[in-house]
Amino acid sequence: MAGRTIPRAPQGQWHFWIDRGGTFTDIVARRPDGRLIVNKLLSENPAAYADATIAGIHQCLGVASDGALPLEQIATVKMGTTVATNALLEKTGAKTLLVITAGFEDQLEIGTQARPDIFALRVVKPELLHSRVIGARERVRADGTIERALDETHLAEALAHARRDGFESVAIVLMHAYAYPAHEARAAELARAAGFAQVSVSNEIAPLIKIVSRGDTTVADAYLTPVLKRYIESVTSELTSAVETAPRVTFMSSSGGLKSVAAFSGRDAILSGPAGGIVGMAETARRAGFHKVIGFDMGGTSTDVSHYAGTYERTLETTVAGVRLQTPMLDIHTVAAGGGSILTFDGLRLKVGPESAGSEPGPMCYRRGGP
Predict the structure, then answer these.
(1) More confident call, 318 vs 141
(2) What letters, b where the CB count within 10 A reaches 16 and e where it falls short, cover 192-224?
(3) How many helices (H) and strands (E) in the chain?
């Protein structure tokens, strides 16, 4: 670890800034005396520790791996994570069910009919994040008139069947629910009663008039939030074990701001790690006297490209790994090609990624049996 002195931290406590990537976890810690120390660990190393973030904090504080953290000495822990980004790139999210108004079961697959490459003879459609659809027997008109009341019995039976088949997450997207959410609210109650751990409701996640944008964003939230929550719980369980002395834990959102644990969900985390990189790049460039910079952030799993010209560029609609999303986020281009991306040969061509060797077992050069 290396260190340099900066102004003393408030209250004489530790402050941690952590970037948890798919391959490496980087930690910058500010000691009570103002010195900065840095630490770098493999994100997954089961033989050495259960979680890289907690292990890194233990190392910075000089506490044994099996010892209790002195939470009263830690003021804040601020994190960026690519857990959701990598789950989207590698398609390793939760098994997701879509509930949509009957008659529109194929709406998200049809999409907007936009063709990025208009002259392509072979159109390859993005892989859907949901693997089953329930057509909810209901219909609310654009003026709020109920044309068909929600058939609760049919929906409850279909939800129970899907739960028995192993679905753990559900996205609920009903026509005109952005303005008239009563049917969605009731459908959410039925989903929770059926035992779904994650219920994403479109009027809460993305209250937009366009059902495709609203649906895509809601499905992505349902697909990613369980993965994200499992990781957050594994990190915060030790940091919040003593409520009266627990440090303040926040996460970087895709829009470049910080969110509390309770408010942080899948839609906010898609570009969490890369967003932190842009904020750091912009501030570093400003202090160095540069006003126009290009960011190239290659990790082990993915690569993020951005640029900054004095203001943060944000977008309300973007596409990540072929998934359309409508939520505020910094304008970042992400591709599933990192230092640990696996090379494969299908008999005709070499392919890079999207699967990554990660940190466990890691690539071949780690000499642990990786690809």
Answers:
(1) 141
(2) eebebebbbbbbbbbebeebbbbbbbbbbbbbb
(3) 9, 22
∠357-298-220 over CA atoms, to 5°?
A: 75
Answer whether 317's CB lies under 8 Å from 326's CB: yes
pLDDT one-digit tens code per residue, 124-157: 777 889 999 999 999 999 999 999 999 999 999 9
224 pLDDT tier (thresholds 50, 70, 90)? very high
Cα distances from 146 to residues 185, 191, 216, in angstroms, run 15, 21, 25
3-class DSSP assignment, residue 34: coil
Which pair of tokens denotes residue 255? Answer: 């829009």
Task: Using DSSP bridges, classify how beta strands 3-5 and 258-260 pair: parallel, antiparallel or unpaired.
Answer: unpaired
Dist CA 190 CA 169 (whole Å)? 13
Quote the distance between the C-alpha of residue 316 and its chain's center. Answer: 16
* Ranges of H-type helices in 49-176: 52-61, 83-90, 107-110, 152-164
CA distance 19 to 15: 14
- Secondary structure (3-state) at 258: strand
- CB-based contacts of 210, cutoff 8 Å, min separation 6: 326
Residue for token digits 């985390």?
269
Centroid of chain to Cα 310: 27
Which tens digit of pLDDT belongs to each residue from 43-93?
888 888 888 899 999 999 998 888 888 888 899 999 988 888 778 877 888
- Neighbouring-strand partners of residue 303: 298, 335
Tokens linked to 17: 């800034």
DSSP state, 97?
E
Q: pTM of the entire structure? A: 0.79
Chain segment 86-126, per-residue pLDDT in tens:
788 778 889 999 999 999 999 999 888 777 778 888 877 77
